[in-house]
Design a protein that fits this description.
Number of domains: 2
Structural class: alpha/beta
Oligomer: single chain
Shape: globular
CATH superfamily of the largest domain: Aldehyde Dehydrogenase, Chain A, domain 1
Distance between the termini: 59 Å
């Protein structure tokens, strides 16, 4: 009988009372485990997290909470092999893709453990300098940040069951805020196993970390004024969250990461035999194939001067032809499957829509699969589309196909390219390629208002840059407009979401006691 995974809720392991939802191997098609949260007392779980977990975490200082994160890092590192196996089976990822998720999550957790040590023995944060409120400096104001006395509810996407969880949980726990995680059902196994390992090891106080696997129905109804919500997923679901009474009537703080049609821009005055051109081609192919294109930060649009359109199409297609797709357990495979049949069908339908306004430059449908059945598996090879007349193809700026699909787009000049990029209505990341520092800096500033991150790749950093799609904990992750308008990470900036800012107005003598 297939195992039904337990939820850690209200300080104890509990299984749902329903039949459960099956998690499927996207390559082999077999059932792995089941998840279910039917019958759980949602109010009890939220109350336990707020009252038990929150109180215990706030009793600790930042250094002590950072030490808890450090202990979690050591535990997760020791169990990496199990996490890799689960990821291969449930997400269909090759080892390199699994590393981005599993090791990326652990690395992010380790960075916030170090931040805790840096913050030291404090239990609140100073925000700025003393502000004089009158001519006499005796009476002044000091802004401070204190942990919110609520829970952090995380509703996560399927593509990063490890990193997507820990990049939210690390700053929340360091802030002193208990976490409730609702992972995406399709890949909940890895998140559940990581939480189970941490809980069973007794590292965190009771109630500091809870997980509920299954339907999210009713979770938002449990939110109270000082809770926070962080969501990663579709714009449609984000709209429902924003319109919930908890947000509109109780002002529950919400962070959204939604759709994003990210771009790569190759600046003019470069040639097809330049180092910058090679860097563009390499990064595009990597972003199309890593995680089978299932990354919120993946390159969806590639902008090149009209004079280099043919050369770029040829160079990118040639490298895509070398990407072997199929069973991730096979040594020769470089790209595994998408997460399930629903996602596969969504990619195929979206691809057909894009093809109504774009040419097919490299047809992934013609590529053979390695050790994978086309009827059973959810494997799909990369497809490169092309638009020679950018002004006539609007859909490529509006529709995000969440898979190994990207569109090459020709532009006339830099102003034209920037205008086309902005048609994406706000994105998580845009990357720039060239060798002129002044031109790169100018373009980066121009794109700053419509992107959470601008990744500039020039030949001098070709061997050391962190990658267009890689989210580093030191930089913010999020974006304006259709990307959700949220912010995560960014070093210590991430702690702001889990703290409340207030101004203490008092005599200088009193304010000195805050230091």
């Amino acid at each position: 009988m297939t195992e039904l995974l337990a939820n850690y809720w209200a300080g104890r392991w509990q299984r749902g009372s329903g039949k459960g939802t099956s998690l499927i191997d996207p390559v082999l098609g077999n059932e792995l485990v089941k998840i279910d949260a039917t019958g759980l007392d949602l109010a009890e779980g939220f109350h336990f997290a707020r009252e038990q977990g929150g109180k215990a975490l706030r009793a600790l200082n930042y250094r002590e909470r950072g030490a808890l994160l450090s202990a979690m890092v050591n535990l997760l590192q020791a169990n990496r092999g199990d996490y890799y196996d689960i990821s291969t089976a449930n997400s269909g990822t090759v080892k390199n893709d699994t590393a981005i998720d599993v090791d990326g999550g652990i690395f992010t957790l380790s960075q916030y453990a170090k931040f805790g040590e840096k913050l030291g023995d404090r239990k609140f944060l100073l925000d700025g300098e003393l502000a004089r409120l009158g001519k006499d400096p005796l009476f002044q104001a000091q802004h401070i940040l204190t942990p919110t006395r609520g829970v952090a509810l995380f509703i996560n996407a399927f593509n990063f069951p490890s990193w997507g969880f820990w990049e939210k949980a690390a700053p929340a726990l360091l802030s002193g805020v208990p976490v409730i995680i609702k992972p995406a059902s399709a890949t909940a196994w890895l998140t559940q196993r990581m939480v189970k390992d941490v809980v069973d090891a007794g590292i965190l106080p009771a109630g500091a970390l809870s997980i509920i696997c299954g339907s999210s129905e009713g979770l938002l109804d449990q939110l109270q004024a000082f809770d926070v919500v962080s969501f990663t997923g579709s714009a449609a679901t984000a709209s429902l969250i924003r319109s919930h009474p908890a947000m509109t009537e109780q002002s529950v703080r919400v962070n959204i990461e939604a759709d994003s049609i990210n771009s790569a821009l190759f600046l003019p005055d470069e040639t097809a035999d330049s180092a910058a051109f090679d860097l563009l081609v390499k990064e595009v192919v990597r972003e199309m194939s890593v995680k089978s294109g299932q990354k919120c930060t993946a390159i969806r649009r590639i902008f090149v001067p009209t004079t280099l359109y043919a050369a770029a199409a040829e160079a990118i297609s040639a490298k895509l032809a070398n990407i072997t797709v199929g069973n991730p357990r096979h040594e020769s495979v470089r790209m595994g499957a998408v997460v399930n049949k629903s996602q596969l069908h969504s990619i195929q339908a979206g691809l057909a829509q894009l093809q109504s306004q774009a040419d097919t430059l490299f047809d992934g449908a013609k590529q053979p699969l390695v050790d994978a059945d086309t009827q059973t598996s959810c494997c799909i090879a990369p497809t490169l589309l092309g638009v020679g007349d950018a002004d006539k193809a609007q859909i490529v700026h509006e529709l995000e196909v969440f898979g190994p699909v990207a569109t090459l787009i020709a532009y006339r000049d830099v102003d034209h390219a920037l205008q086309l990029i902005r048609r994406g209505q706000g994105s998580l990341v845009s990357s720039l390629y060239g060798s002129d520092p002044q031109a790169l800096a100018h373009a980066a500033i121009e794109l700053g208002d419509s992107h959470g991150r601008v990744h500039v790749i020039s030949p001098d950093v070709g061997a050391v840059h962190t990658g267009h799609g890689n989210v580093m904990p030191q930089s913010i992750h999020g974006g304006p407009g259709r990307a959700g308008g949220g912010e995560e990470l960014g070093g210590l900036r991430a702690l702001n979401f889990y703290h409340r800012r207030s101004a203490i107005q008092a005599s200088t003598t009193v304010l000195e006691q805050l230091q």
